[in-house]
Amino acid sequence: MVSASALTIIASTLVSQVVAHGYVPQIKIGSQYIPGWNVNTDGYTTPQPIRVVRATKPDSGFISDPSSGDITCSIGNSKLPPGPITATVAAGQTVTMLWNSWPIGHFGPVLNYLAKCPGECSSWKGDSGTPWFKIQQDVYANSEWASDTLAKNNATYVVKIPKNIAPGNYLLRHENLALHGGANLGGAQFYPVCVQLTITGGGSLNPSGLGFPGAYKATDPGIHFNPYQGEAANKAYIPPGGAVYPGLQF
Ligand SMILES: [Cu+2]
């Protein structure tokens, strides 16, 4: 016997997986809420609103090819002009990503990268060379994938900005990597979101080394991965993109 409420939960889970996986319509820095990218309205408004979160078009769907230009920041990243604004955050502070929702069961890690924009972020897509470096990752803890932890935490995730990186304009690449289909080659789903930041204070560290595209391959063991093998396999899982850049201070 399955209760009506259980059926409702199952039905709404299926709907959310088909219709909208989630997007980031708002971020928070300190006590300030800043509009992100609302896939339901921002892409259909003329003139297109200028946001600190880069647009994703046409929807909040996933990217399945990690060698695609979309892997940098979002679907359509390779075509869309970024908006010429940034959110200001001090080195050592946090940026909270407020997803509209995130489905339970999109098992996988949450990965976070920065890249320093050569001048203004608004004229830079970040999709060539190796300007990126990993600053934070949450993988699997207490028998739970980080994506489920994010979902249960009211679809929020807090990114810490390193204390000792050089001040300047940066892209923050925050990503849910969903592996519920990852047992099949090409079945992983990437949901990157980029935020244009101006980081103040800080130190003199200028890390780099990763490219998007470039850092991920479909055959990486952290991408072609079956998350249904049980606790031991999940604990041994190593996400793509390598370790957090050494020497960062938080
Ligand atoms: Cu999804």
UniProtKB/TrEMBL annotation:
Gene3D superfamilies named in the record: 2.70.50.70
Catalytic activity: [(1->4)-beta-D-glucosyl]n+m + reduced acceptor + O2 = 4-dehydro-beta-D-glucosyl-[(1->4)-beta-D-glucosyl]n-1 + [(1->4)-beta-D-glucosyl]m + acceptor + H2O
Domain Auxiliary Activity family 9 catalytic: from-to ranges: 21-237
Keyword field: Carbohydrate metabolism, Cellulose degradation, Copper, Disulfide bond, Metal-binding, Monooxygenase, Oxidoreductase, Polysaccharide degradation, Secreted, Signal
Signal peptide extent: 1-20
Cofactor entry: Cu(2+)
EC number annotated for this UniProt entry: 1.14.99.56
Pfam families: AA9 (PF03443)
InterPro entries in the cross-refs: AA9, AA9_LPMO
Compartmental location: Secreted
Family: Belongs to the polysaccharide monooxygenase AA9 family.
Alphabetized PANTHER family for the sequence: ENDO-BETA-1,4-GLUCANASE D (PTHR33353:SF10), PUTATIVE (AFU_ORTHOLOGUE AFUA_1G12560)-RELATED (PTHR33353)
Protein name as it appears in the record: lytic cellulose monooxygenase (C4-dehydrogenating)
UniProt source species: Hohenbuehelia grisea
